[in-house]
């Protein structure tokens, strides 16, 4: 325990896991009492993957332990291209590419862009993973051959564990959490979805109350959402968010652990606020013309109903301030704020590395 105290939270968690130690303790952090759970839940590293162990990487990707991050094994996919590769992108270009679509982060544009790029590269159209299609993939054995070169969708994270015959990689775009929730709120009001679609009562509730009803919209919970098919049949499949994710959402150590390992999950992290630079990152990492062919695309931007752009922007900013001023909402959105700040830090490092390539 003395040794553990001298390490950072992330080093401590990883060390505890690698040594097979189960450690539970409580720590005072400001006004919060934080329980730190069995660290084997946080990082069940049972093996160490190296470039030489993987014939697809060709020694171009940095070695790192195989960690369990939000239920995703980091050894199932390529790590961040800009932070963990030597700049040779052949392994990434040849990989199965999976785009995790975070709602209201430019996803409509990115998915259209992927279709254009795939056609240019003489690849089949990206396979959109939603409901039945995601269930179908989960039930389909792909030990010998993955018939797809690109996946995309809100529930595409985790698909790489199904790919056995080649490398696989994830990328995503994120957005400032309060701004994203305001955008979701406006979209809900414009669509006026009927009850039961996960965005109930947005026409009748103030945004501070509505936000508390859409916890599954948070990036943190999206990272944890999985497909389970206990019966082995399509009608027995469902999307599940483990109860442990809800228990850990306000655990500072756990949320920081997830944040610190985002760069082991995603080969590229883009920002909705810097769309063009994000496309340049994708183009360099994958060796495909994401920027050249998609820089003019920008779908569904700023559709907040009637009114001029300036008026709608003021309306959006006022609602974001309202959310930030609500203590209950701040606690609720806490994990997404931590993840976004880390993603932004990774993005800045990606851009700096890009400049040297």
UniProtKB/TrEMBL annotation:
<dbReference type="InterPro" id="IPR053259">
    <property type="entry name" value="Golvesin-related_Golgi"/>
</dbReference>
<dbReference type="GO" id="GO:0016020">
    <property type="term" value="C:membrane"/>
</dbReference>
<dbReference type="InterPro" id="IPR005331">
    <property type="entry name" value="Sulfotransferase"/>
</dbReference>
<dbReference type="Pfam" id="PF03567">
    <property type="entry name" value="Sulfotransfer_2"/>
</dbReference>
<dbReference type="InterPro" id="IPR027417">
    <property type="entry name" value="P-loop_NTPase"/>
</dbReference>
<protein>
    <recommendedName>
        <fullName>Sulfotransferase</fullName>
    </recommendedName>
</protein>
<dbReference type="GO" id="GO:0008146">
    <property type="term" value="F:sulfotransferase activity"/>
</dbReference>
